[in-house]
C-alpha cells in the first residue's frame, strides 16, 4: 500500500529519509581524544588503522609441541626448549621439537604444532607423535586477524565493548571520537509531576524524562534535563530560548494539533516547523523544527509512542548527526505467533517477545502502556494494509539493539 492511499499520513521511511537529510545538513564534526575507558558508546571520528600485525608473530593455538613438519617421520624427537607465553624463543634446532604453550611464539624453523594429547613422552624424555603432522596445524599465523596498515574500524563506528577490546588488542590507549552531542530533554504537560512527590488530582508521574535521559546517556549524549514545561506558550518560548547552546531539543507531549500544542506555536512564531502526521502506531504526530536555529524534535507524549518514535526516528537522526553510517536498527524476519485480521493504515510496532520460536504480543498495545515494552524483547512490525495468519513472517526489531 502506498502513501497515496492515505493522503496526509507520511510513511515511516519518508519521515526517516527527511530526518536523515536534515541530520546530514548539520553534522557534529568536532572531535576529541579520549582514553579507551571513556570511549564507551561514543562514535569514532577517525578510522582505526592497525599499527601492527595481529597476531604480531606466529604463535601456538594449543598446549603441545612445535616442530618442523618435514622432521616428522613417526620417530621420537628430542625436546630442545620450552616456550611459555611471553617468552622469546631461540630458533628450533633441526630435527628436534619444542615444548610450547598456547599463545607462545613459534620458534624460527618450526611450522606446526602437535597438541599434547597426541604426544607420547618416552622415558628418555623424547616425544613420539603418532599422528601425521599437517603443515601449519595449530599455528596462528602472523597477521591472520589484521595486517599493519589495514583499516580495522571506519570513522562513524559506534564504540562498544567489542570495538574497544579490538582497539586495545591493537595497542590503542586513546581514540579520536566525535564530541558528545548536547541534547536537552523537555517534558511538556500540566499534568506531569516528578516521582517522589505525592500525586495530586489529575496528575501523572513523568516517565518520558527518565526514559529519554537514560537512553540518551547510553547513546553517548551529554544530556541536559530541562525539566517539565507547563502547557503555556509564554513559558514554552522562554524555556526554548534558554536552550540556545544545545545540538538538539527533544521534547515529548503537546505535539498533537490540539489546543495545547504550545511547542508548535512557539516554533511557528520563532523558527520553523514541520508537523508530520506519520503512518506509524503508536506515534503519529511528530514535530520537527528549529527554534532560533536549534533543531527541535517533538515526540508524542504517550510513553510507548515516545519509545517507538525515538527508536525509529529520533535515534537514527541523532546517530547520523554524529556520522554513524548504519543507523537503521537491526531487524530480521520471524514467524508471527498471532493473527492480524484487520489491515491498518499506519505501520504498527507491537511490543512482542518470543514464545516457542514465535513472536507473541503483549495483550495491551495501548500507546500509554510502557509496561508492554518492559515485558517485550522487541518490536514487531506490521506494515500498512497487511493481514497476517499465525506463522507468517514479520520483521522483528530487538529492543536490546535499539536501546544502545
Ligand atoms: P500529549 O501529546 O501532550 O497530548 O500527551 C499524550 C499523552 O501522553 C497524555 O496522556 C499525557 O498525559 C501523556 N504524557 C505526556 N507526557 C508524558 C510524560 N512525560 N510522561 C508520561 N506521560 C506523558
Ligand atoms: Mg500534553
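Sequence proposed for the structure above (404 residues):
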Amino acid at each position: 500500500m502506498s502513501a497515496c492511499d492515505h493522503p496526509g499520513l507520511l510513511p515511516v521511511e519518508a519521515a526517516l529519509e527527511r530526518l536523515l537529510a536534515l541530520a546530514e545538513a548539520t553534522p557534529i564534526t568536532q572531535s576529541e581524544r579520549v582514553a579507551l575507558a571513556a570511549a564507551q558508546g561514543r562514535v569514532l571520528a577517525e578510522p582505526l588503522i592497525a599499527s601492527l600485525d595481529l597476531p604480531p608473530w606466529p604463535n601456538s593455538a594449543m598446549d603441545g609441541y612445535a616442530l618442523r613438519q618435514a622432521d616428522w617421520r613417526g620417530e621420537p624427537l628430542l625436546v630442545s626448549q620450552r616456550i611459555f607465553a611471553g617468552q622469546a624463543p631461540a630458533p628450533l634446532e633441526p630435527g628436534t621439537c619444542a615444548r610450547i604453550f598456547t599463545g607462545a611464539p613459534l620458534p624460527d624453523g618450526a611450522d606446526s604444532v602437535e597438541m599434547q594429547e597426541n604426544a607420547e613422552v618416552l622415558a628418555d624424555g623424547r616425544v613420539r607423535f603418532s599422528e601425521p603432522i599437517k603443515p601449519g596445524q595449530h599455528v596462528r599465523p602472523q597477521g591472520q586477524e589484521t595486517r599493519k596498515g589495514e583499516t580495522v574500524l571506519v570513522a562513524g563506528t559506534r564504540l562498544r565493548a567489542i570495538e574497544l577490546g579490538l582497539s586495545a588488542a591493537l595497542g590503542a590507549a586513546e581514540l579520536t571520537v566525535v564530541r558528545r552531542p548536547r541534547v536537552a530533554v523537555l517534558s511538556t504537560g500540566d499534568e506531569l509531576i516528578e516521582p517522589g512527590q505525592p500525586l495530586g488530582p489529575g496528575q501523572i508521574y513523568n516517565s518520558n524524562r527518565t526514559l529519554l535521559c537514560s537512553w540518551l546517556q547510553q547513546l553517548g549524549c551529554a544530556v541536559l534535563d530541562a525539566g517539565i514545561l507547563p502547557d503555556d506558550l509564554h513559558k514554552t518560548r522562554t524555556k526554548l530560548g534558554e536552550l540556545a547552546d544545545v545540538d538538539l531539543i527533544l521534547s515529548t507531549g503537546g505535539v498533537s494539533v490540539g489546543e495545547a500544542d504550545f511547542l508548535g506555536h512557539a516554533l511557528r512564531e520563532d523558527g520553523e516547523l514541520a508537523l508530520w502526521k506519520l503512518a506509524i502506531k503508536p506515534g503519529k504526530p511528530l514535530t520537527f523544527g528549529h527554534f532560533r536555529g536549534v533543531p527541535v524534535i517533538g515526540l508524542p507524549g504517550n510513553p510507548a509512542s515516545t519509545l517507538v518514535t525515538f527508536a525509529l526516528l529520533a535515534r537514527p537522526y541523532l546517530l547520523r548527526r554524529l556520522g554513524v553510517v548504519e543507523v537503521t536498527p537491526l531487524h530480521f524476519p520471524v514467524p508471527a505467533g498471532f493473527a492480524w485480521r484487520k489491515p491498518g493504515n499506519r505501520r504498527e510496532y507491537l511490543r512482542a517477545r518470543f514464545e516457542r520460536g514465535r513472536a507473541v504480543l503483549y495483550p495491551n498495545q495501548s500507546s500509554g502502556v510502557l509496561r508492554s515494552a518492559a515485558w517485550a524483547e522487541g518490536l514487531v512490525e506490521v506494515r500498512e494494509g497487511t493481514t497476517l495468519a499465525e506463522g507468517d513472517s514479520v520483521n522483528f526489531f530487538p529492543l536490546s539493539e535499539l536501546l544502545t
